């Protein structure tokens, strides 16, 4: 964690690193970690916004969300491939209500 008035730098995962991460989570049967990682990538949302999502929103083709950090309303359009991934994650999570 950074200290107040201290500069920080975020490093991003390469595509290969991301695939290693989700493959490892999947192989370790870490459904929650895999779900979070895939939803964060599929929606390009911050953690605070991912944690507010419900399956009802994720399983739609598009949804609107009020971003916590910026306060802006954001329209998320989910590609067919990402929708398929979310459907699979929904089943892996036991199809919660």
Structural features, described:
The chain is mainly α. Helix 1 runs antiparallel to helix 2 and helix 2 packs antiparallel against helix 5. The model has no long low-confidence stretch (mean pLDDT 92). The protein has a two-stranded antiparallel sheet with strand order 1-2. The chain is globular.
- Category by helix and strand content: mainly alpha
Could you give the order of strands across the largest sheet?
Answer: 1-2
Tally of individual helices: 5
Helical proportion, percent range: 40-55%
Q: What's the total count of β strands?
A: 2
Compute the CA-based radius of gyration: 15 Å
Q: Secondary-structure element sequence?
A: HHHHEEH
Termini gap: 35 Å
Strand content: 5-15%
Shape call: globular
Largest β-sheet summary? 2 strands, antiparallel
| Contiguous runs where pLDDT drops below 50 for at least 5 residues | none
Mean pLDDT: 92
How do the strands and helices of this protein lay out in sequence?
Layout: H1 15-27, H2 31-43, H3 47-50, H4 55-58, E1 62-66, E2 73-77, H5 80-92
Antiparallel strand pairs: 1-2
Helix pairs in contact: 1-2, 2-5
Key terms:
97 residues; 10% strand
In summary, what is this structure?
The protein has about 100 residues and is mainly alpha-helical.
């Amino acid at each position: 964690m950074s200290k107040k008035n201290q500069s920080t730098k975020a490093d991003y995962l390469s595509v290969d690193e991301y695939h290693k991460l989700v493959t490892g989570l999947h192989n370790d049967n870490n459904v929650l970690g895999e779900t979070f990682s895939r939803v964060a990538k599929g929606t390009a949302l911050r953690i605070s916004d991912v944690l507010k999502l419900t399956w009802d929103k994720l399983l739609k083709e598009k949804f609107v969300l009020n971003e916590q950090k910026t306060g802006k309303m954001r329209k998320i359009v989910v590609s067919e491939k990402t929708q398929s991934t979310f459907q699979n994650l929904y089943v892996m999570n036991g199809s919660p209500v």
